[in-house]
TrEMBL record:
The keyword DNA-binding applies. It holds the Pfam family Methylase_S. Residues 299-405 form the Type I restriction modification DNA specificity domain. Keywords: DNA-binding, Restriction system. InterPro entries: Restrct_endonuc_typeI_TRD, Restrct_endonuc_typeI_TRD_sf, Type-I_RE_S_subunit. The keyword Isomerase does not apply. This is Restriction modification system DNA specificity domain-containing protein. Belongs to the type-I restriction system S methylase family.
């Protein structure tokens, strides 16, 4: 990073590992000299604020994504709430994750938060960047037992950490530099994120077209007789899901409690909605069910070519094919299992992830609170049925096309990862004085 920018003419040892050498004219002071803890009672007109690692300190109404009028607190008699001025900082409830947040708003926070105000002449944006840079967060996390235990830190613990301090003009210059440069980086990230979304839409469109219209654009079409399906190739059939596969779920009386969850090696893997990701089985999250409960329901023992379907919960409708299973598996009550398919299981898996099924699932919610599909709903899903040979060709085509698209998505994701690392490195270099941006101008290229 420093190779692209000029260094300061002279440096000195800061005496602190996380900072390393700093410009010779900079000072090092404890945080308690730069920030003081304030306990001003909330005003009756204050809006309640909340700390977010992504957005900083923002109105609670915004945090809850409410677009209505401001949510005013009935603060009479609740003097323990603390007033926050614009450009104050707050030690958040999740400060063990580096959550010392800047507030761009005036309002109040609960007494669980610690409010910090500047004791010295400072540019808040400089410290907003400094208190979020990776070296500082690492130093913060290694400085106290509280952080190692996953707890919030106190003002005394924060105040003992040494921070750099330079002139207000230099702080302002560094903050302006970072505002400009990180905005350009964020634009690149946004473009990559947009590319990923477009690729995902393309992937979905390719799957949906192939499994409902086939691969030959010149094939005569006919009305399927199914509203959601529309026209299908003239020589295709249509069926209901219950006629092409067997659908199983965990029967109520064969449910289980937390007492039936065991350690790895003492039972079978129990699959949940978290194990269904992008149409594939994902085993990054694992839970195990006792052998007694596993063998109690042999009909939901997971085998290769079974299809997992989330039938309950916020992600209901997600599906994935089990291409192989390296260990014994079963499903939890939120899942359904499609077994013994009479048509290509891989083709059926693609159908289950198509816009056709997604549209039907969207109107199949029978839960008043938690989204739910009944087995009757699932059984009635319309399924286009090409010949075995054509289904095989569709699967081969989709395997190739989706793999190519998935590889492009991975490349875009990797690009975002690299760009974010560059952004983090640039911020760290600027706020710790490893690069000299005092003569930087936004219209010029002085790297």
């Amino acid at each position: 990073m420093t190779g692209h920018y000029k260094a300061y003419p002279e440096y000195k040892n800061s005496g602190h590992k996380w900072l390393g050498d700093i410009p010779s004219q900079w000072n090092i002071w404890r945080a308690k000299r730069i920030f003081s803890s304030v306990r001003v009672a909330a005003k009756d007109t204050d809006e309640q604020l909340a700390a977010s690692q992504k957005y900083g300190v923002v109105p609670q109404s915004l945090m809850m994504k409410l677009n209505s009028a401001k949510v005013m607190l009935a603060l009479k008699g609740t003097d323990s709430f603390r007033h926050v001025e614009k450009d104050n900082f707050v030690i958040s409830l999740r400060s063990f994750e580096g959550g010392i947040e800047h507030s761009a708003y005036e309002g109040c926070v609960s007494p669980a938060y610690t409010v910090l105000e500047a004791s010295l002449h400072m540019h808040s944006a400089f410290y907003k960047y400094l208190l979020k840079c990776e070296p500082f967060i690492a130093a913060l996390q290694s400085s106290t037992d509280s952080l190692r235990d996953g707890k919030s830190i106190s003002y005394e613990q924060f105040g003992a950490i040494h921070l750099p301090y330079c002139s207000y003009e230099e702080q302002q210059k560094i903050a302006s530099f970072l505002d400009h440069e990180t905005a350009k980086i964020d634009t690149l990230i946004t473009k990559q994120e947009k590319l990923i979304e477009l690729l995902k839409e393309k992937r979905q469109a390719v799957i949906s077209h192939a499994v409902t219209k086939g691969l030959n654009p010149n094939t005569p079409m006919k009305n399927s007789g199914v509203e959601w399906l529309g026209e299908v190739p003239e020589h295709w059939g249509t069926s209901r899901l219950k006629f092409v596969t067997s659908i199983f779920g965990r029967i109520g009386f064969r449910g289980y409690t937390t007492d039936d969850i065991v350690d790895e090696g003492e039972g079978a893997l129990v699959l949940s909605p978290s194990n269904v990701l992008n149409g594939k089985l994902d085993l990054n999250s694992k839970a195990y069910l006792s052998w007694d409960k596993y063998y109690e329901s042999p009909e939901i023992i997971v085998e290769p070519n079974d299809i997992l379907l989330v039938k309950t919960g916020s992600t209901y409708g997600k599906s994935a094919i089990v291409e192989s299973n390296s260990e014994p598996m079963t499903i939890n009550p939120q899942m359904a299992l499609l077994k013994k398919s009479k048509i290509s299981a891989k083709y059926l898996a693609y159908v289950m992830s198509s816009d056709l099924i997604k549209a039907i699932i969207k109107v199949s919610n029978t839960g008043s609170g938690m989204p739910t599909m009944t087995q009757e709903n699932i059984n009635s899903f319309p399924i286009p049925t090409p010949s075995d040979s054509e289904a095989k060709n569709i699967v081969n085509f989709l395997d190739q096309r989706t793999t190519n698209i998935d590889n492009l998505i991975k490349l875009a994701g990797k690009a975002i990862e690299i760009i974010n690392k560059r952004k983090a490195a640039l911020i760290s270099a600027a706020v710790t004085g490893k690069i000299d941006v005092r003569n930087w101008q936004p219209q010029g290229d002085q790297k």
